[in-house]
Amino acid sequence: MSDALPKFCVVIPCYNEEEVLPETAGRIAAQLQRMINARMIGEDSHVLFVDDGSSDRTWPTIEELHRKARCFLGLKLSHNRGHQNALLAGLLSATGDIVVSIDADLQDDPELMTEMVQANAAGSDVVLAVRRTRTTDHAFKRITAELYYRRLRWMSIETTYNHGDYRLLSRRAIEALRQYGESNLFLRALVMEIGFKAVVVSYDRAPRFAGSSKYPLRKMIALALDGVTAFSTMPLRLITLVGFVVSFFSFLLGAWALLAAFFSLVVPGWASTVIPIYLICGVQLICLGIMGEYIGKIYHETKRRPRYTIETTLLESGQKNRDQPSLAQDS
C-alpha cells in the first residue's frame, strides 16, 4: 500500500465575488499549508475557483491569484449557470484524491477542513459540515430553512439537517457522482443518494466577510423546488388526496346550499353556484401548477443540453487544456 499523501483540492464556486476573493484565497491557502506541514495532505494540493459567469472582476482576480501562486487554479464558465451547476463543474473537473467544496463568502470555517480530512482518513467517503446554529441568518430565512428541511424529511428525501454545500468527497464518491446525468440538480440530496459512508462534523457559521448574498429569495425558492421535484413525487400523490378532500367538502357545501335554499336563507341559486366554483377552480389551479412544475423539469431533462460549458481554464503546471472537459452533460 502506498504511503503517498493524498492530493487535496478545494473547489470554490464564485459569482461576483471580487470583494472577498483575495481574503478567501489567503485563508484557504494558509489552511492548506498547515495541513501540508502536518503531513495530512500532499504538497500538490490546490484551490480550484469556478467563475460562474461573473459580471465583475472575479475572473481577472482569479487570474491574478494564479499568477502569484500556482496552487490557485481557475475554471471559467461561458455564462452564469447557477450555483449548483458551477459547483458540479468544479467537482467533476477537480483532480484531487480528496475534494472539499466551500463557498467563497467565508461564512464556512476553513479550519474545519482538518477535521474533515481526519474523518476521511478514518474511512468516510463523504464528510458533511453541519451548522450548529443559524444565528447569522435573518429570522425569515432561518425559520423557512428549518421548515424546509423538516418537509424534505417528511417526503422521505434524504438530506442532513442544516447542511449546505460545505462537504468533503473522496475520489470514489466523485466518480460515483459523475454517473448522475440529470440537469435538475440538488447536490445536498444527490450526494446522499450515492450511498457511501457519510459522517457529520459541526461548526459555527460566521457572518459574510464582504459583499452581498448571491442567494436572494427568488433563487432560494428555485433551489427548494428543485430539491423537492428532483427526489420526490409526493406532491403529485397529494393532488389525488386533495381531489378527494375537495369532493367531500363540495358535497357538504352542496347539501348546505340545498338546505339554505329550502329555508330561504340566501338568494336562490347564489350559494350553490358561487362557492363550489371558487373552491374547485382554486384547487384546480394549484394542482395544475404542481403538475406544471414536474412537466417543466421533464422538459429540461429530455433536451439533454450540457449542464455547463467551460470557456477558460487555469491549470496546474504541465497540465494541458485538453485534460479538462469543455462540456459536461453525461460526465
How would you characterize this protein structure?
- By secondary structure, the protein is α/β, with parallel strands linked by helices.
- Helix content is 47%, strand content 15%.
- The protein is built from 10 helices and 8 strands.
- The longest helix is centred in the C-terminal third of the chain and has 34 residues.
- The chain is elongated.
- The two termini are 29 Å apart.
Would you kindly provide a brief summary of this structure?
With 331 residues, this protein is of the alpha/beta class. The chain has ten helices and eight strands. 47% of the residues lie in helices and 15% in strands.
Q: Roughly how many Å apart are the termini?
A: 29 Å
| Physical arrangement of strands within the biggest beta sheet | 7-5-6-4-1-2-3-8
> Structural class, judged by helices and strands?
alpha/beta
Uncertain residue ranges: 317-331
Q: What characteristic shape results from the CA principal axes?
A: elongated
The fraction of residues assigned to DSSP E strands is 5-15%
Tell me the number of helical segments per DSSP (H or I, 4 or more residues long): 10
Helix content: 40-55%
Count the E strands. 8
Q: Report the average pLDDT across residues.
A: 80
Largest sheet: 8 strands, mixed
The rounded Rg comes to 25 Å
Order of helices and strands: EHEHEHEHEHEHHEHHHE
